[in-house]
């Protein structure tokens, strides 16, 4: 006949119950932390948005109304308003942007990458391709792009020198940013 140890079975059930309670507590704790993180991220986004508004609109407007471009404070820190430029080329405007750059003698900022992929154990084919390029029948992938910082610098340079640039084609934004230099 089987020997059943009811006391051991009861102890196992209690341990499993305690483990489940501990697991449930940890899951609640994790959910609470995730909720707090989400609230904190939203709080940070709101503060960044307010900072952008004060930096880009409020302070530049106040300084402009006072006829100032910069200001030294009593504590030794300084407030300066500088122009801010941003630009990007959307997929929709890519062809027009590249055509404009080329027709205005700026085509050299367009990067033209050609990539060819080979499978495993095709090192020999890769070497042949490097020597013979398209002659081996491979179709390379071509990617044209303008580096974002290069485009931003071009936009800044052209605007500051009163040269033409199609604002819509390059999604140009010009604004102000306040810079606070703190005393060291």
| Oligomerization state | single chain
What's the number of helices? Answer: 4
Sheet with most strands: strand arrangement: 1-2-5
The stretches of 5 or more residues where confidence is low (pLDDT under 50) are none
Mean pLDDT: 88
Helix content: 40-55%
- Anisotropy-based shape: flat
Q: Work out the number of β strands.
A: 5
Span from first to last CA? Answer: 86 Å
DSSP strand (E) fraction?
Answer: 15-25%
Strand/helix succession: HEEHEHEHE
Structural class: alpha+beta
Rg, nearest Å:
31 Å
User: Sheet with the most strands?
Assistant: 3 strands, antiparallel
Q: How is this structure best described in words?
A:
This protein is α+β, with helices and mostly antiparallel strands. The chain is 51% helix and 18% strand. It contains 4 helices and 5 strands. The chain has helices at 6-65, 94-103, 123-132, 148-160; strands at 70-72, 78-86, 110-115, 141-146, 173-181. The chain has a 3-stranded antiparallel sheet. A two-stranded antiparallel ribbon has the order 3-4. It is flat and about 95 Å long. The mean pLDDT is 88.
């Amino acid at each position: 006949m089987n020997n059943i140890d009811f006391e051991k079975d009861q102890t196992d059930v209690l341990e499993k119950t305690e483990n489940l309670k501990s697991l449930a507590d940890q899951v609640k704790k994790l959910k609470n932390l995730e909720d707090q993180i989400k609230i904190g991220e939203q709080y940070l986004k709101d503060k960044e948005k307010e900072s952008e508004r004060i930096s880009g609109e409020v302070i530049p407007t106040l300084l402009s109304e006072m006829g100032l471009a910069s200001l030294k404070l009593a504590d030794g820190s300084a407030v300066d308003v500088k122009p801010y430029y941003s630009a990007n080329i959307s997929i929709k405007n890519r062809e027009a942007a590249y055509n404009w750059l080329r027709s205005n003698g700026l085509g050299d900022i367009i990067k033209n990458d050609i990539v060819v992929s080979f499978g495993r154990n095709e090192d020999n084919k890769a070497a042949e391709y490097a020597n013979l390029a398209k002659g081996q029948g491979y179709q390379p992938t071509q990617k044209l792009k303008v580096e974002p910082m290069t485009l931003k610098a071009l936009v800044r340079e052209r605007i500051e020198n009163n040269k033409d640039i199609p604002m819509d084609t390059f999604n140009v934004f010009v604004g102000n940013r306040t810079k606070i230099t703190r005393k060291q």
